[in-house]
Amino acid sequence: MRVSYAVVFVSDMQRSISFYRDVLGLPLKFQTSGWTEFATEGATLALHEGEALCEKGDPRRTLAGTCHPGLGVPDLKAFHEKMLANKVTCVREPAETFGTWLAQYVDADGLVISVSEDRQERGD
């Protein structure tokens, strides 16, 4: 298993791009009004528009100032079965999204964690 990305939810995309690019010095990979990625040597760091306020306790929250980690696994089906056996809450069943198999689970503190499997690893 590897960390494949971290999505930082932001309240002001341009201000956050300026911070990560101009202050921290991360090279910009691409940007849109709702999604931006930086060209890092390791896992992808992305910015996504977040909500200023959200319902407290909602495990699918995208509150600005929070982070959403993503993990990569070689076999999502086996991983999913393991999570269910361990009674981990699944908020998104495994499904194909943009050519990648993806599921989402909630950690012990309510943070949503995405887990993906690349199609090429599946042999599909």
Question: What's the arrangement of secondary structure elements?
Answer:
Layout: E1 2-10, H1 13-23, E2 28-31, E3 35-38, E4 44-49, E5 67-72, H2 76-85, E6 90-97, E7 100-106, E8 112-118, H3 119-122
Parallel strand pairs: 1-4, 5-8
Antiparallel strand pairs: 1-5, 2-3, 3-4, 6-7, 7-8
Stretches where pLDDT falls below 50 for ≥5 residues? none
Assembly classification: single chain
Shape: globular
Mean pLDDT across residues:
83
SS-based structural class? Answer: alpha+beta
Residue share in helix:
10-25%
Spatial gap, N to C terminus: 20 Å
Count of extended strands: 8
Strand order of the largest sheet: 2-3-4-1-5-8-7-6
Q: Using the CA coordinates, give the radius of gyration.
A: 15 Å
Described by strand count, sense and barrel closure, the largest sheet is: 8 strands, mixed
Element-by-element helix/strand order: EHEEEEHEEEH
> Please, how many helices?
3
The proportion of strand residues reads: 35-45%
Give a quick rundown of the structure.
This protein has helices spanning 13-23, 76-85, 119-122; strands at 2-10, 28-31, 35-38, 44-49, 67-72, 90-97, 100-106, 112-118.
How would you characterize the overall build of this protein?
With 124 residues, the chain is of the alpha+beta class. Helix content is 20%, strand content 41%. Strands 2-3-4-1-5-8-7-6 form an eight-stranded mixed beta sheet. The radius of gyration is 15 Å and the shape is globular. It starts with a strand and ends with a helix. The model has no long low-confidence stretch (mean pLDDT 83).
